[in-house]
Write a sequence for this structure.
């Protein structure tokens, strides 16, 4: 029963699943060699470049790193405003 | 010419020295000629784990400095015909050796033995660089914990950068905790680290007792952990070529050992 309560408290995920999720994230960052500060600086520069071409909210630009089978990928996502022509 | 295998992990305390002692002893039991090299200069421990601490005269730094020949520094394990230990120095520091020194020494040892097993210190600095310098292959030991896996991942990257092929031992897995959802499984660790599995060793109280006595568990060969180390050594020696992850599942084997499920009919 205690396990059931613990699972409920952790939002339905076992500590094993939580560990797995955290490791995927932390290893993706470790493997990229990009520290948090560098990643943020890159996000801001990329947002500024996009803003040169399309009016966007630069705060909405997101940057993330994912890693699968030792292949690491950088993803930048930015919402684009609807065109009112 | 023998093979040099470095046993490494990044994080300390995950069972590198225990794995080195047991794999080396198990390989010797298979009739292979084995030298165990303690590369943890300043913090030697392979000697106590092997129960050979009272017989040290010369050590690895003496050999590198030319104070004695490698043959003279090797301690013969009297429990077996073909097992030797080259202890680390306890008074020097990691800078007493260079990667070139180690590569030369390991090469010399390989010419007279089937296996040179190098016990790597924790960390990724000079001691690690020395320990991997002469290695043809690596065994990465990781326990199913976030800190161990994170450090193992770093080491795997460094080994790849040095073109040293690596395989994985998942150590101290507790089937009970995995089942309860409170420990990463063997499959989880393999998925996260994306490394070939050499074997999985269960958490086993016998290891504490055998280490207390200075007798590698495979010599008594009573425990589940000892049986797994023996299986791993057979795979290392190429005697048991079934891939670790296609072998009967760990839990199936454990179940059988505990009499919970029937033995295979073949």
């Amino acid at each position: 029963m205690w396990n059931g309560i613990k699972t409920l408290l952790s939002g339905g995920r076992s500590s094993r699943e939580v560990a797995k999720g955290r490791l995927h994230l932390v290893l993706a960052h470790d493997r990229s060699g990009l520290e948090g500060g560098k990643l943020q600086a890159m996000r801001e520069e990329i947002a500024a470049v996009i803003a040169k071409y399309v009016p966007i909210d630069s705060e909405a630009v997101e940057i993330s790193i994912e890693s699968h089978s030792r292949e690491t990928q950088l993803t930048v996502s930015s919402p684009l405003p609807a065109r009112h022509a | 010419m023998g093979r040099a295998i470095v046993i490494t992990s990044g994080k300390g305390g995950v069972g590198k020295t225990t794995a080195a002692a047991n794999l080396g002893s198990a390989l010797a039991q298979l009739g292979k000629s084995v030298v165990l090299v303690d590369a943890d200069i300043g913090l030697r421990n392979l000697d106590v784990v092997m129960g050979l601490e009272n017989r040290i005269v010369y050590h690895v730094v003496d050999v590198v400095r030319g104070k004695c020949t490698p043959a003279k520094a090797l301690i013969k394990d009297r429990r077996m015909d073909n097992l030797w230990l080259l202890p680390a120095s306890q008074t020097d520091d990691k800078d007493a050796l260079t990667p070139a020194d180690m590569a030369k020494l390991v090469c010399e040892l390989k010419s007279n033995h089937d296996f040179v097993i190098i016990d790597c210190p924790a960390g990724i600095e000079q001691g690690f660089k020395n320990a991997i310098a002469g290695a043809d292959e690596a065994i990465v030991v990781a326990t199913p914990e976030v800190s161990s896996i994170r450090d193992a991942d770093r080491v795997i990257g460094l080994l790849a950068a040095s073109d040293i092929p690596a395989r994985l031992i998942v150590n101290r897995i507790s089937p009970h905790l995995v089942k309860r959802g409170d420990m990463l499984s063997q499959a989880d660790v393999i998925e996260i680290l994306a490394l070939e599995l050499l074997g999985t060793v269960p958490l086993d109280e016998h290891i504490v007792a055998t280490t207390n006595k200075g007798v590698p568990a495979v010599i008594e060969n009573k425990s589940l952990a000892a049986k797994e180390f023996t299986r791993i050594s057979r795979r290392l020696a190429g005697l048991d070529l079934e891939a670790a992850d296609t072998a009967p599942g760990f839990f199936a084997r454990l179940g059988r050992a505990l009499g919970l499920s029937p033995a295979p009919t073949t």
